[in-house]
Design brief:
Distance between the termini: 34 Å
Bound molecules: guanosine-5'-diphosphate, zinc ion
Largest sheet: 5 strands, mixed, barrel
Structural class: alpha/beta
Radius of gyration: 21 Å
Number of helices: 7
Shape: globular
Oligomer: single chain
Strand order of the largest sheet: 1-2-3-5-4
Length: 303
């Protein structure tokens, strides 16, 4: 039997089988070798199962197409949160908390470096003054080629459009807590009844509550991976040489760099730096690149 892991937590795995049946499964002994830290099985993994006694056992894990990895600045370990995601929806708020280009760039870069196609979602456009924040961000990121959706979970603005985008494949909503990710999913599908507000993801003290990662099925047929919050996104351990390709608007200028493997930080005759000087590449984007580059090069984070 083949299935997709739907929920994990407390050493147990819920698997959606190909015929739609959902079963609880445990891990076959040899999959545990290497310890829990290796995260042998995460939500989104395609696994093979065998019936064993009265239950099911996961026998094998298929190669992943993508991995969503949490690299934090405060912790050394990298954690794989979900496998095989098709798209990521990076959610920020126009106000309360107010988004800025640095945050947006971090989120987009997370998607790009994980090769999970990112879309930018700017929520809370109903709040006073939201347009002054949301419109410039929309213009900036659309000019780079990203799909940008302005939405309001509270006022129902843009929710249909977001739903449309979420209705095929497996996606995830990523963003700091409080931007309205749960509210947006509830607006799309009120039956989900996800908890919203400050305490929703903390689960009380957060110490002995098992954080369940899970995949939610939407009425329209799409799947959404519900992953824990992303307050702190770092890039330590990403090969710095891969970073320039994570900034789509840099790509056409790379051929103009004099040196192969140019880092675009201090080399002469650099196509990227020239484009920044001409105003073709936005300065906020180049600043984010430089930050990501210095973090990515930090090998001490390798766990
Ligand atoms: P999450 O942590 O990203 O899942 O955010 P929540 O969905 O829990 O929402 C955080 C807070 O923002 C809650 O108090 C929501 O009621 C509020 N909120 C969510 N969406 C909107 C919106 O579109 N407009 C306004 N004004 N408030 C919103
Ligand atoms: Zn260069």
């Amino acid at each position: 039997m083949i299935g997709v892991v739907d929920q994990t937590g407390g050493g147990s795995y819920r698997v959606r089988l190909e015929d739609g049946l959902v079963v609880e499964a445990s891990l076959r002994g040899r999959l545990k070798v290497g310890g829990a830290k290796k995260e042998r099985v995460v939500i989104g993994d395609r696994v093979s199962l065998e019936q064993s006694g009265e239950g099911w056992a996961i026998e094998g894990v298929e190669q992943r197409t993508t991995e969503l990895v949490r690299r934090s600045r405060s912790k050394r370990v990298h954690k794989v949160l979900a496998a095989n995601l098709d798209r990521s929806f990076m959610v920020v708020a126009a106000k309360d908390p107010q988004a800025n280009p640095e945050l947006v760039d971090r989120l987009l870069l997370l998607g790009e470096s994980s090769r999970i196609k990112p879309t930018l979602v700017i929520n809370k456009v109903d709040l006073p003054g939201a347009g002054e924040v949301a419109e410039p961000l929309k213009n900036l990121y659309e000019s780079i080629g990203y799909l940008v959706l302005l939405v309001s979970a509270a006022a129902g603005v843009g929710v249909d459009r977001l739903e449309e985008e979420l209705c095929s494949g497996t996606s995830t909503l990523i963003g700091p807590s409080g931007v309205g990710k749960s509210s947006l999913l509830n607006a799309i599908d009120p039956e989900l009844e996800l908890r919203t507000g400050e305490l929703s993801r903390k689960g009380g003290t957060g110490r002995h509550t098992t954080v369940n990662a899970r995949i939610i099925s939407l009425n329209c047929g799409g799947f959404v991976a519900d992953t824990p919050g992303f307050g702190d996104i770092a890039f330590a351990g990403i090969p710095p040489s891969e970073l320039d390709h994570c900034f789509p608007e840099f790509r056409e200028h790379l051929a103009l760099c004099r040196f192969r493997g140019c880092s675009h930080v201090s080399e002469p005759d650099c196509g990227v730096q020239a484009a920044v000087e001409k105003g073709v590449i936005p300065t906020t984007r180049f600043r984010s690149y430089l930050k990501a580059h210095s973090e990515a090069a930090d090998l001490s984070y390798y766990g």
